[in-house]
Design goal:
There is one protein chain. By secondary structure, this protein is of the alpha+beta class. It has one domain (about 20-105). It contains three helices and six strands; from the N terminus they run E-H-E-E-H-E-H-E-E. The protein has helices at about 25-30, 60-65, 75-80, and strands spanning about 20-25, 35-40, 45-55, 70, 95, 105. A hairpin with a 6-residue loop joins strand 5 (about 95) and strand 6. The longest helix has 7 residues, at about 75-80. The termini are far apart. It comes from Massilia phyllostachyos. This is DUF2185 domain-containing protein. InterPro entries: Imm33_dom.
Length: about 110
């Protein structure tokens, strides 16, 4: 059973009604801020297309499905409120936290490997 960094009563309505997303345990369990976010095209209802990572996950970490889960976008916004202004970006958008400024900035979108 995962022990989340935020409890249910700490989740506030910051980005409601935006559907589901994928996020890694580096955010939800370890409490790290979102360091990389990418929006994939989606045809599934209630799937926002967003995937959120801390940005320091290795490929081995990402290959293990136990290290991520499906969450409401609002939940992840509570871990990193600065993502809320970027959530309307279209599919095929990506943002990375700039090490110098600490701000999320647009980066080149790379389609996932099939």
């Amino acid at each position: 059973m995962k022990k989340f960094a935020l409890t249910a009563d700490q989740i506030k309505p910051l980005a409601t009604g935006r559907g589901g997303c994928i996020a890694t345990d580096r955010i939800t369990v370890d409490g790290r801020p979102v360091g990389y976010m990418v929006r994939e095209p989606s045809t599934r209802q209630h799937d926002s297309g967003w995937c959120f990572m801390a940005g320091d996950e290795t490929q081995d970490y990402m290959d293990d499905p136990s290290h991520h889960g499906i969450y409401d976008v609002n939940t992840i916004a509570n871990y990193s409120p600065d993502i809320t202004s970027l959530l309307d970006a279209p599919p095929c958008s990506a943002f990375e936290r700039d090490a110098a400024t600490g701000k999320l900035v647009a980066v080149m979108y790379e389609a996932p490997l099939e």
